[in-house]
Amino acid sequence: MKKCKKFFTAGLIYILFLLFNACGAMMGGGSTEISLTSEPDKVEVEIKPTGEKVETPATVKLKNNQDYIFIAKKEGYKEQTQTIKKEIKTDALVCDILWFLPGLIPGAIAIGVDLSTGGLYKLDKNTVHFIMEPEKPPLPKGNL
C-alpha cells in the first residue's frame, strides 16, 4: 500500500509539473504586439536591434526578452527616438521558483524555458506614439 501511495504522489507531482511548468510562457507568452502611431501618418520607424522598418500606423510583434529602440524619420521633420524596456514578470518568477520545492530539476526546467522563450519578461508598454516636430526652415540669405 505504501508503494502505491508513493507511486500516486509521484504521478500527481509529474502531472502538475507538466500542466504548470514554465509559468511565464503559459501566462502571456514570450512576445507582445506593439502599436506604432504618429502625427502625421506615414512616418518611417526603424526598430533596433531587429532592423525592421515599418511605416505608421503599424503593429509589430516583438519578443519580450530584450529592450527596443524606435527611430522615427520623415522628410521635413526632426528625427525622434523612443524606447521600450523589458521587465521581469514577478508572478511568473514566483511561480517558477515554486517549482524548486518538488526538486531542483523541475525548477531549473521552468526557469530555463521562461528565460529562453521570453516568458519571464514583459515589455513596459505596448504602444509607441510619435508627434513629429517640423524642422525649422533655413533663414533666407541676405535678409539679416
Considering the chains and any ligands shown, give keywords for the structure.
single chain, 144 residues, four-stranded antiparallel beta sheet, 32% helix
Number of domains: 1
Radius of gyration, CA atoms, in whole angstroms? 24 Å
Chain-averaged pLDDT: 80
**Which sheet architecture does the biggest sheet show?**
4 strands, antiparallel
Structural class: alpha+beta
Q: Write the element-wise H/E pattern from the N-terminal end onward.
A: HHEEEEEEEHHEE
Count of helix runs: 4
Beta-strand fraction estimate: 25-35%
Helix content: 25-40%
Report the end-to-end length measured between terminal Cα atoms: 101 Å
Low-pLDDT residue intervals, each spanning 5 or more residues = none
Per DSSP E runs of 2 or more residues, the count of β-strands stands at 9
List the strand order in the largest sheet: 3-2-5-6
Give the helix/strand layout.
Elements: H1 2-20, H2 23-26, E1 31-39, E2 44-48, E3 52-55, E4 58-63, E5 68-73, E6 80-84, E7 86-88, H3 90-98, H4 104-117, E8 121-123, E9 127-131
Helix pairs in contact: 3-4
